[in-house]
Amino acid sequence: MIGGIARALRPTAPLFLWGAHFGLIYAIHSFACERGFVEARMLGMPFVQALVAGVTVLALLGLALLAWAPLARMGLPEVDGGEEEPRFRLWLLFAACCAAALTILFQAAPAFVLPAC
């Protein structure tokens, strides 16, 4: 039963990753503004930009790993006989990965254009 629930919820994993990235970006900004780390530098970049870049790269790598399974299994034969339709779930997972990647890039972009506080 748990395996079926996990298979059914797998296409929503990119959306959870996007939400975690969204929360981390806001946490980084609020922490830096509250503690006065806006002027601090890390790896030659301002503190906030370096952390946002790191979190964004990690989120995009996670999405790439999630999207790898649908791309690798696209050539499988179709399932008949009233069984579950894995192609739709694979397509939905891949589409969710693409949508989450775009939103992650869009929500990280202001950190490099606007001041942190």
From TrEMBL:
Q: Does the keyword Transmembrane helix apply?
A: yes
Could you list the residue ranges that cross the membrane?
Answer: 15-38, 50-71, 91-114
The organism's superkingdom is given as Bacteria
Transmembrane as a keyword of this entry, yes or no, is yes
Instruction: For this UniProt record, give its keywords in alphabetical order, as a comma-separated list.
Output: Membrane, Transmembrane, Transmembrane helix
Name of the protein described by the UniProt record: Uncharacterized protein
- What species does this protein belong to? Sabulicella glaciei
